[in-house]
Design brief:
Layout (H helix, E strand, L loop, with lengths): L10 H13 L8 E2 L5 E3 L2 H11 L10 H6 L2 H12 L6 E3 L5 E3 L1 H9 L6 H11 L1 H4 L14 E6 L2 E6 L2 E4 L16 E4 L1 H8 L8 H7 L8 H4 E7 L9 E7 L3 H7 L2 H6 L2 H13 L2 H11 L3 H9 L1 H7 L4 H8 L1
Antiparallel strand pairs: 1-2, 3-4, 5-6, 7-8, 9-10
Length: 325
């Protein structure tokens, strides 16, 4: 329910970020040759080109591997849908008579295999840039902290992550975007492994670009608002319940991640904020500020911590802003 800070970076900083990400694949994209110039190991580029040549309909996809690896999300969505619609087999009948993955997909799995050691390097890439990108809470729900911790092992500083890297567009359905930078979303295990899995919130590309935290077009602040409502049929504390007010099609995002149901458990925090807001209206804050010789904004921050919540990326930051807003 928040965007990754890619689009808050300057063009130069974002360009450097992309350059750094491509550096992960140095020595892997191009062929490896011996001193005589003979190829001893094919790189990703050659293997990808060979795959494209074997399956003519796939020629609509980018021929340059680097294009796939660092394409912006709106382009990735286009490639994803083009791949899904390719007239190539996705399954075949196995020896036991059951449907299994087709040879065409298996070949791609090997070319863009995330677990070929790339997974740890990509994880390190996000760990090292956690501060720059603001990786502190799950981008899908903002309910769980997703951060790093460090420890010293035999005199060496080691960083570890406490978050999953979700493929927003599932690599199982489209292996050729399995290594794409803007397809990764740092998330909690509940959102990634228990809810999302191999599915995508939304119906088509027009909605995918609105729902992915790595997409420039995503706008959760304007289209999703967390509210505390009263309802006699809902029971609970004072009959209040959490409601997500949405602008179409963002209700699909909220429903997909079961945000209303999951936030309901934290209703007591919303009620606390509601009481705090009523206890300290602007007129009272101005009176306190005058008495203490502080600026009203300082007093307001001391009471509500909105600036702190935003700058430090605290859980339920959006709910806090919306309830107090």
């Amino acid at each position: 329910m928040k965007k990754i800070r890619y689009w808050e970076l300057s063009p130069a900083d974002r360009g450097q970020l992309i350059k750094d990400y491509l550096a992960i694949f140095n020595g892997v994209i191009e062929d490896k040759t011996d001193k005589n110039g003979s190829v001893v190991k094919k790189g990703l580029q050659t293997r990808w080109e060979e795959w494209l040549n074997n399956y003519a309909p796939a020629s609509i996809l980018p021929k340059n591997v680097k294009t796939l690896i660092v394409a912006p999300f709106n382009k990735l969505v286009k490639y994803y849908e083009e791949f899904i619609n390719l007239p190539i087999p996705k399954t075949k009948v196995g020896q036991n008579g059951k449907q299994i993955r087709s040879d065409e997909l298996c070949e791609l799995d090997e070319i863009f295999k995330y677990s070929h050691g790339f997974d740890s390097m990509i994880a390190d890439f996000f760990i090292e840039r956690a501060e720059k990108l603001g990786i502190r809470t799950c981008y899908y729900c903002e309910m769980a902290y997703v951060n790093n911790y460090e420890y010293w092992d035999q005199g060496k500083r080691t960083l570890r992550r406490q978050f999953d890297l979700d493929h927003f567009l599932p690599k199982g359905k489209c292996p050729c975007i399995g290594l794409s930078l803007f397809n990764f979303v740092p998330s909690c295990q509940v959102c990634n492994s228990r809810i999302k899995q191999e599915e995508i919130p939304g119906q088509d590309s027009s909605e995918y670009v609105l729902f992915s935290p790595s997409s420039k077009a995503a706008d959760y602040d304007r289209n999703i608002t967390v509210r505390l409502r009263f309802g006699t049929d809902n029971g609970g504390v004072n009959g209040r319940y959490i409601h997500f007010k949405t602008v179409k099609p963002y209700e699909k995002y909220v429903n997909f991640f079961h945000l209303e149901e999951r936030y309901e458990f934290h209703k007591v925090e919303a009620l606390r904020l509601n009481r705090l807001q009523k206890r300290y209206p602007d007129v009272k804050i101005r009176s306190i500020a005058k008495l203490l010789h502080y600026k009203p904004d300082i007093v307001k921050e001391d009471i509500f911590h909105l600036k702190y919540m935003k700058e430090e990326g605290r859980c339920f930051e959006k709910m806090t802003r919306d309830i107090l807003g």
